[in-house]
Write a structure and sequence with these properties.
The complex is a heterodimer of chains A (185) and B (417).
Chain A (H helix, E strand, L loop, with lengths): L3 H12 L6 H13 L3 E2 L6 E2 L16 H10 L3 E5 L5 E2 L13 E5 L3 E10 L12 E8 L6 E5 L12 E6 L10 E5 L2
Antiparallel strand pairs in A: 1-2, 3-4, 3-5, 6-7, 6-9, 7-8, 9-10
Chain B lengths: L3 H4 L6 E8 L11 H16 L8 E5 L3 H4 L4 H8 L7 E4 L5 H14 L5 E8 L13 H9 L14 H16 L3 H14 L14 H6 L2 E3 L2 E2 L9 E9 H6 L6 E10 L9 H4 L10 H14 L4 H4 L2 E3 L5 H10 L8 H6 L16 H5 L3 H16 L14 E8 L5 E8 L2
Parallel strand pairs in B: 2-3, 2-4, 9-10
Antiparallel strand pairs in B: 1-7, 1-8, 4-7, 5-6, 8-11, 10-11
Helix pairs in contact in B: 2-4, 5-17, 8-14
Classes of the chains: A alpha+beta (185), B alpha/beta (417).
Chain lengths: 185, 417
């Protein structure tokens, strides 16, 4: 006898196509754009394909050190308020509780899951990754938590209170997805 | 209108005198967003017995530029519905856009800046289209996911559902709330929508069907989630003196408004308690604060005994359970039992979301909060037809929320004399 959750998961799996994305999207859109705009069946309204694309270069500002330490040293940095003592993770240039100045402080790779969810549906970019867990993790010595991916390791969900440890990608590019958390056995 | 010197310092009383809406539908290829807004606006003006010339100012609730395929969409609505020569502003606060647009419209009149203000919520959604999948949904989800912090959260594959599912998981852990209790909300609201001719998803379903529907983001299944909706809803607001002067029938008064935003980096809510404020991830502190503010202004001490009807934000079924608690309808942590006991059902002592809510009526984001307030208005003036509930105390409440981890909240309390 299958549980409700198992059935719901099976339906989710069946529905997903694991097609790759950006190149496919571009190809299809340009094909469509070269055709005439379509008129909806039974209707007199025009419908046309379109897309919106933007390119950026952006600065991490005063949070830059978090990303440079992550990329170069595979270390996690938060910031401690010199006035009220809160250790913010992710870091803040000023404490949002009291506006006190903060100083950089390396935080523990070990942490506690505050709460998490397992995603079974996503945008095209993440379709081939489901199911995956995201949740808030508070390093043992920090006062606040960061959103991060938590490796399910075959589990269905990650319970609040679970102990986890940070793992780092071999090739890091200075983005938040350079690390993730795994359950501590 | 009184001069500034005559106004002194007190707030002016504000009435809602007209409501109008389009049908809420999955997709409306027959109408652009400004045509949706026009249809709702004309209906609201006709209901309020006023014409274009009577309107002093307009507030637009439109959530997402990517949905509309347009930055500053309000300026094109303003033109299209003939409001040139009048002030118009846009509010965009996620799922709470409608509630906050109403707050802004109220302020226009309470402050003396206007005597008649139109509040319009309008939204498209399903023009977003994922050409690789041949579906709208993944692309709609993406355009909402861009509301997550682009540096810290979006790159991890978050969605609106996962953001609220994290809150639900915390509530389940802390208070023992169950998926079955949340499923009851879905059954109730889809069922209530059967009596709403404007609703997108009227359905007679069972708890078992909710439990076995497709998994979206644990603990949310498909039937725990509202759908994407296109539509518009408009309200006409009027100052008390103008309403008396023009002898408005059945004005519904704005008794109280309370609004509060919590930390949108949800993981930093852990220090809410440390700083002597209530709430962590399981308790939506800003919902409690918004309700307290609105009740204080309305002079309500016991909401459970004072409110006849409420429209609570149920983009996800669990959120309604959290709202029962935050609105003071039951004790903290007892929201699941509140629905098990049948209190928020149509025949119950405090019916919640007779419109069908977002699950049943649909979630046309910018229009949603305006719709919820319009529903309460029509309940209070006994014009809700097949879904009319009994009005004994003359008070109703609308709860509008949105943003990552439900960071936005605005609560409106309405009443009749």
């Amino acid at each position: 006898m299958k549980t409700s959750t198992e059935k719901a998961r099976e339906t989710a799996r069946k529905e997903l196509k694991s097609e790759p994305l950006e190149s496919v999207i571009d190809r299809i859109i340009f094909e469509k754009l070269n055709q005439n705009p379509s008129i909806l069946e039974h209707e007199k309204y025009f419908e046309v394909p379109d897309k919106m694309v933007m390119f950026y270069k952006y600065s991490y500002g005063e949070q830059s050190r978090f990303f440079s330490e992550l990329m170069n040293s595979a270390e996690l940095y938060g910031s401690r308020c010199s006035k009220c003592g809160i250790l913010h993770f992710p870091p803040r240039s000023r404490c949002s509780e009291c506006y006190g100045e903060t100083e950089w402080k390396k935080v523990s790779n070990e942490g506690i899951v505050l709460s998490s969810t397992t995603s079974w549906y996503a945008t095209s970019e993440f379709f081939d990754k489901v199911p995956y867990a995201v949740g808030y993790v508070k390093p043992l010595d920090a006062d606040t938590g960061i959103l991060q991916r938590i490796d399910l390791k075959g589990r269905e969900k990650i319970e609040p209170g679970t102990k986890v440890i940070a793992k780092f990608k071999e090739k890091r590019t200075g983005v938040v997805s350079d690390f993730w958390y795994e359950i501590m056995e | 209108m009184k001069s500034y010197r005559q106004l002194k310092s007190e707030k002016r009383r504000v009435a809602v005198i007209g409501t109008g809406q389009t049908k809420f539908e999955a997709r409306t290829p027959n109408k652009t967003y400004y045509e949706l807004a026009l249809e709702a606006a004309m209906m609201a003006m006709s209901d309020g017995g006023i014409t274009l010339g009577n309107i002093d100012s307009v507030v637009y609730g439109i959530y997402n530029d990517l949905f509309e395929r347009q930055i500053m969409p309000d300026t094109y609505v303003h033109d299209y519905i003939g409001m040139y020569g009048k002030p118009g502003i846009r509010i965009t606060t996620g799922g709470a856009t409608g509630g906050y647009a109403f707050r802004s419209g109220y302020s226009e009149i309470a402050s003396g800046l206007a005597d008649v203000t139109l509040v319009i919520g309008a939204e498209k959604a399903q023009d977003c289209y994922d050409w690789a999948q041949g579906k709208t949904t993944p692309e709609v989800i993406k355009s909402i996911a861009y509301s997550a912090d682009m540096t810290w959260e979006f790159p991890l594959g978050t969605s609106a559902a996962s953001s609220y599912a994290i809150l639900a998981s915390a509530h389940m852990k802390k208070y023992g709330t169950t998926e079955e209790q949340a499923a009851l909300v879905s059954v109730k609201n889809h069922g209530n929508a059967i009596n709403n001719p404007f609703a997108q998803s009227p359905m007679k379903i069972t708890v078992d069907e909710v439990m076995q529907s497709r998994m979206i983001s644990h603990p949310f299944k498909m039937l725990d989630c509202s759908l994407y909706t296109e539509g518009a809803y408009a309200l006409v607001l009027m100052s008390e003196e103008k309403a008396r002067e023009t002898d408005v029938k059945d004005p519904v008064w704005v008794m109280g408004i309370g609004s509060s935003n919590d930390k949108s980096f949800t993981g930093s809510r852990t220090v809410n308690d440390r700083m002597g404020k209530y709430g962590d991830i399981a308790d939506l502190r800003n919902h409690y604060e918004s309700a307290a503010m609105a009740y204080r202004m309305a002079g309500i001490e016991n909401p459970r005994k004072s409110v006849d009807v409420a429209e609570l934000h149920d983009a996800f079924s669990f959120t309604e359970i959290q709202a029962y608690e935050a609105m003071g309808f039951c004790e903290r942590g007892k929201g699941g039992k509140f629905i098990e006991d049948g209190v928020p059902m149509m025949g119950g002592d405090l019916p919640v979301s007779p419109s069908g809510g977002l699950l049943g009526a649909g979630h046309a984001v910018g229009a949603t909060g305006v719709m919820q307030i319009g529903e309460v208005v029509n309940q209070l003036r006994n014009r809700a037809e097949k879904r009319q509930v009994e009005i004994n105390r003359g008070t109703g409440l609308a709860h509008s929320i949105g943003g990552p981890g439900s960071s936005y909240c605005s609560v409106s309390v309405l009443g009749v004399d």
